[in-house]
Amino acid sequence: MGQKTSPIGFRTGVTLGWQSTWFAPKASYGDCLVEDQRIREFVDRRFNQRMPKGAVARVEIVRTRNEVNVTLHSGRPGVVIGPRGGEVDKVREELESFIGRKVTVNVIEIKEPDLNATLVAQGIAEQLGKRASFRRTMKQFCEGAMNAGARGVKIMCSGRLAGSEMARTETQKLGSIPLHTLDADVDYAVGTARTTYGAIGIKVWIYKGKFGEEREPVRRRPPRRRPGRPTGGPRASGGPKAAAGGAKVEGSGSAEPGAAPTE
Fold first, then answer.
1. Can you tell me whether residue 263 is helix, strand or coil?
2. Rounded distance, CA 50 to CA 142, Å?
3. What torsion do the CA atoms of 229, 233, 239, 240 make, to the nearest 10 degrees?
4. 3-state SS assignment for residue 55
5. CA-to-CA distance for 60 and 105, rounded, in angstroms?
6. Does residue 178 have a cis peptide bond before it, meaning omega lies within 30 degrees of 0?
7. Where does residue 180 rank: exposed (0-12), middle (13-18), buried (19+ CB within 10 A)?
8. Collapsed DSSP state (helix, strand, coil) of residue 238
9. Of 104, 139, 153, 177, which one has the greatest count of Cβ atoms within 10 A?
10. What is the Cα–Cα distance from 210 to 254, expressed in whole angstroms?
11. Are 185 and 209 in contact (CB under 8 A)?
12. CA 84 to CA 93: how far, in whole Å?
């Protein structure tokens, strides 16, 4: 049987950095670990489960002797910062209240939300919660990531899709996903869509290319419009309404509105 492992944990310490950076003795290591988890759960509840959502994809924690630095990577930094930085100040005060140390909160904008697996998983979960078609939603996010410059995308949804009695797994894949290549920059995230008929699990893999490789900007193609069917209305046939919309009618001259017509 194939042994699956998380692409993030597989590359952490090799080509990816740690999300928590600190050193603690054996006596206080467990307390710091639990504290980190409480910080991440608080940020997730505050910005990813309440409206308006701040789209926080990554929380980095750096500890010094008396201070805790928390860095939030967000796709919507304006929501996280708030008007005149008021939201960040509230978050800092609440973190200091249950940590008991000085806390510094920094916000970094995610330039390409379509290339972030966490934000893609959150977007799919939000759409499925609104009863959108899962196949159309998966295809839409796959194409969006590829248009943003991804080398490969894989999205997997599992559960009672479309409200069916029997749970099943559906997968959508574009491009390539080299999971065994440590030099490959593969982003991975898991999300959950809470629907009226049960929870739907979502997994997203996005391959962005090799680490240190410059990504070429991709020109995004505009969405194709379906050609409308010709109708027999006045606009299609060039009737009097179409002519009166500003087209010059022969023999009318440049008469002002309200003037008598010339023969």
1. coil
2. 26
3. -140
4. coil
5. 10
6. no
7. exposed
8. coil
9. 153
10. 66
11. yes
12. 16
Structure token pair of residue 203:
């997994």
The encoded tokens of residue 192 equal 């959950």
User: Is 118 buried (19+), middle (13-18) or exposed (0-12) by CB count in 10 A?
Assistant: buried
Complete edge-to-edge strand list for the sheet that includes strand 184-195: 168-175, 152-159, 198-210, 184-195
Which two structure tokens, joined as six digits, stand for 191?
């999300």
Distance, CA of 106 to CA of 162 (rounded, Å): 40
Assign 207 to helix, strand or coil: strand
Residue in the block written with tokens 């979502």: 202
What are the tokens at 155? 């999205």
pTM above 0.85, yes or no: no
Q: Measured between alpha carbons, how far is 17 from 20 in angstroms, rounded to an integer?
A: 9
Residue 45 CB partners (closer than 8 Å, separation 6+): none
10-residue mean pLDDT series, the chain (263 residues): 85 91 93 93 89 89 92 90 86 89 91 93 92 92 92 94 92 92 93 92 94 66 60 50 46 48 49
C-alpha to C-alpha distance for 218 and 114, rounded to whole angstroms: 13
Angle at alpha carbon of residue 98, lines to 46 and 22, rounded to 5°: 90
Q: Provide the edge-to-edge strand list for the sheet that holds 56-63.
A: 20-21, 56-63, 67-74, 102-109
List the structure tokens of 113. Answer: 């939300």
Which residue in 69, 75, 25 sits closest to 54, CA to CA?
75
State how far the Cα of 61 lies from the Cα of 59, in Å rounded to an integer.
Answer: 7
